[in-house]
Write a structure and sequence with these properties.
Low-confidence stretches: 409-428
Radius of gyration: 24 Å
Shape: globular
Structural class: mainly beta
Distance between the termini: 69 Å
Number of strands: 32
Helix content: 10-25%
């Protein structure tokens, strides 16, 4: 009689390994703001980290290859008048990042491929609609230019970044502070957790709550929730005895959990990071020095513990690389960017394999950078699955694509009341050709400045190489 003692899984032997010291990002003053966000956002081109900044809020953006000690005068992205609380890269444009701040605004930035000479202070668009600080932002997974923001005014707003307009405002749904918001795979539903101890599943376009669960975890500390690829919901929270828990829930029967596991007694909120391709959830606690990972399957007990990556120093925040930014030749299935007090340390998760060939079973087709829908199509009720790409030959990031914001003129649809005011004699009367000539000149000057900045940056890099060569 044969008995299978160990569950078969290709991810049983996944192990984590920090990179060498020269591949870390040193001398970064990571933000000390008390807020449960990851403080770090990563894509195949850049790593962005919220940093300490005098007189306002700022974050630093570094090209992935620019490892080592970061110059203390390195340009920052500074436009907020209060600390930045959350940042998120656009999934459809690797040069566009959004930031949310205590100053109640959301700003969207275009990051150039080269390192700018001065700090970036002008956002592409500023989104104003919240009355209190904004702590959560998240891009729509499949629709172009749709951005979600959630503030301490218990309000969730969806924006069309391409026009700078508010698409939807989800009011009167949350009675208290919103802890986190997550999209499902095709962006048709949202899951939110709130201080009132409820997990809500919301259809944003119908502006209605589809499902609701009170007290998925009995403890008073914050709850986190994310969607799985098959529509189930994964939560982290605390028991009455302050033990950290994880839970898996099915929307068809939201009353009872499919799985509920207790882990340990620590007071750090567990941030879940999910890889739908491998169905692995990674749990990183703020203040912890470990990353636990679990495989989610359709067989009991549904949530299977795989392993723990442990280190000596606690993490201040964590960035999670999208699948298209990984090194497939080394069987890398996840890469984390762990924030310390003064540095950022990449941690690579690898499946040990003897063959050097491309591993089809580890890398199914994964969401690429092309949006499946336009913002107007999504708002009108259309849904679409992400457009998938193959990683067989590795992913090469596309060149810088500019985010164009076309603001609608409110005067076009609201004619001014009363008789039209005549021009006063002191106002210059610019004809259309003259105006176009001025705009063309401004455009040419901007291009010249950008070209000079790139030239200066290239010369600085050459100078660095020359200096390194003479040491």
């Amino acid at each position: 009689m044969s008995r299978r003692v160990v569950r078969q899984s290709k991810f049983r032997h996944v192990f984590g390994q920090p990179v060498k010291a020269d591949q870390m990002y040193e001398d970064i003053r990571v933000s000390k703001v008390t807020w449960d966000s990851s403080f770090c956002a990563v894509n195949p081109k850049f790593v962005a980290i919220i940093v300490e900044s005098g007189g306002g809020g700022a974050f630093i953006v570094l090209p992935l290859a620019k490892t080592g000690r970061v110059d203390k005068n390195h340009p920052l992205v500074t436009g907020h008048t209060a600390p930045v609380l959350d940042i998120d890269w656009c999934p459809h444009n690797d040069n566009v990042i959004a930031s949310a701040s205590e100053d109640t605004t959301v700003m969207v930035w275009q990051i150039p491929d080269y390192v700018p000479v001065r700090s970036i202070t002008e956002p592409v668009v500023t989104l104003e609609g919240h009355s209190k600080r904004v702590g959560i932002i998240s891009w729509h997974p499949t629709a172009r230019n749709v951005l979600l923001s959630a503030g301490c005014d218990n309000l969730v707003i969806l924006w069309n970044v391409g026009t700078g307009e508010m698409l939807l405002a989800l009011e009167d749904m949350h009675t208290d502070l919103i802890y986190n918001v997550g999209w499902n795979r095709n962006g048709s539903l949202l899951v939110t957790t709130c201080k009132d101890k409820k997990v809500r599943v919301i259809d944003p376009r119908k502006q209605q709550i589809v499902a609701e669960k009170t007290k998925p975890h009995d403890g008073a500390r914050p709850i986190r929730a994310i969607f799985m690829a098959d529509g189930k919901i994964f939560t982290t929270g605390f028991s009455k005895m302050s033990e950290r828990q994880l839970g898996l829930w099915d929307l068809k029967n939201f009353e009872d959990p499919i799985a509920l596991q207790e882990m340990d007694t620590s007071n750090g909120v567990l941030l879940p990071f999910y890889d739908p391709d491998s169905s692995i959830v990674y749990l990183c606690g703020k203040g912890d020095s470990s990353i636990r990972y679990f495989e989610i399957t359709d067989e009991a007990p549904y949530v299977h513990y795989l392993n723990t990556y442990s280190s000596k120093e606690p993490q201040r925040g964590m960035g999670f690389m999208p699948k298209r930014g990984l090194d497939v030749s080394k069987c890398e299935i996840a890469r984390f960017f762990k924030l310390h007090e003064r540095k950022c340390e990449p941690i690579v998760m690898t499946v040990p394999r003897k063959s050097d060939l491309f591993q089809d079973d580890l890398y199914p087709d994964t969401p690429g950078p092309e949006p499946a829908l336009e913002a107007d199509e999504w708002l009108s009720g259309k849904d679409a699955e992400p457009i998938l790409i193959s990683l067989r030959d590795g992913y090469v990031p596309v060149k810088n694509r500019e985010l164009k914001v076309v603001k609608k003129n409110i005067l076009d649809n609201k004619p001014p009341p009363g008789p039209r005011r005549s021009h006063s004699t002191c106002e210059p009367d610019l004809s259309q050709p003259a105006l176009e000539e001025v705009l063309e000149e401004i455009r040419a000057l901007k291009e010249m400045v950008q070209a000079q900045e790139k030239r200066i940056s290239d010369l600085e890099n050459k100078l660095c190489q020359f200096a390194n060569g003479t040491d």
